[in-house]
Automatic annotation (TrEMBL):
The keyword Cell wall biogenesis/degradation belongs to this UniProt entry's keyword annotation: yes
Pathway in which the depicted protein is active: Cell wall biogenesis; peptidoglycan biosynthesis
Protein name listed in UniProt: L,D-transpeptidase catalytic domain
Any GO BP: regulation of cell shape
Family: Belongs to the YkuD family.
Signal peptide per UniProt: none
Source taxonomy: Bacteria, Pseudomonadati, Pseudomonadota, Gammaproteobacteria, Moraxellales
Pfam families membership: YkuD
TM stretches of this protein: none
Key word Transferase present: yes
Domain L,D-TPase catalytic, chain residue ranges per copy: 64-204
Length: 205
């Protein structure tokens, strides 16, 4: 066997070994390692605003509305009609359609507001969406079911591992929540600072 063939054989073996290692430990590696080059435009990562930029934005272009587009997996922050920022999101595990009852795995659709927040959420930090409203409650009552509650915008890792640097950028590949809207931890940090309580949120199909 000449040196060239031997070298190519060794290179091939090392490549296969590397692939097998990645497959074996893929559950431990954040999503961005595998998907960043193939994500749609709405999911291309960006640098977070600095504290000084946050202060400037709050003074000059305060957030007046949140819009969520479920089909695009996108959350937008708006100041009047101007889009300040857009974030990729993940939804309930059965995302199509409006939430009708507890346990259906759907993310609500319609007009709500941010009415309180939790700095010690099970998923890092969270902003509460005012679902169910009176119409949701009435429709669930007619069906004899609970409409569900505690729909939040929250991070994507538990508070126990949220401080690990790579986990701050982690966003699962698929929809996984019980109906909440999940973003990366670094994104909920930013949303938390930019969005005030009582801000309207419109969730589109």
């Amino acid at each position: 066997m000449n040196k060239k063939i031997f070298f190519l054989l060794v290179l091939f073996i090392l490549s296969i070994s590397g692939i097998l290692i990645c497959i074996k430990y893929s559950h431990l590696i954040p999503t961005s390692y595998f998907t960043s080059s193939s994500l749609p435009n709405s999911e291309i990562t960006f640098s977070s605003f600095s504290d000084s930029e946050i202060i400037k934005l709050r003074k000059q272009t305060p957030v007046t509305e949140i819009r969520v587009f479920k089909s695009e997996r996108k959350l937008e922050l708006l100041s009047e009609s101007h889009i300040i920022r857009a974030y990729p999101v993940r939804l309930g595990f059965a995302p199509i359609g409006h939430k009708k009852q507890e346990g259906d795995g759907k993310t609500p659709e319609g007009r709500y507001s941010i009415d309180w927040r939790n700095p010690k959420s099970a998923f890092y930090k969270s902003l509460h969406i005012s679902y169910p409203n009176s119409q949701d409650i009435a429709q669930a009552k007619q069906r004899g079911v609970s409409p569900g509650a505690n729909i939040m915008i929250h991070g994507s890792t538990t508070s126990k591992i949220s401080k690990l640097p790579e986990m701050m950028n982690y966003l699962p590949r698929g929809d996984w929540t019980l109906g909440c809207i999940a973003v990366r931890n670094i994104d909920i940090d930013e949303i938390w600072k930019l969005v005030d309580d009582k801000t309207p949120i419109i969730i589109y199909p």
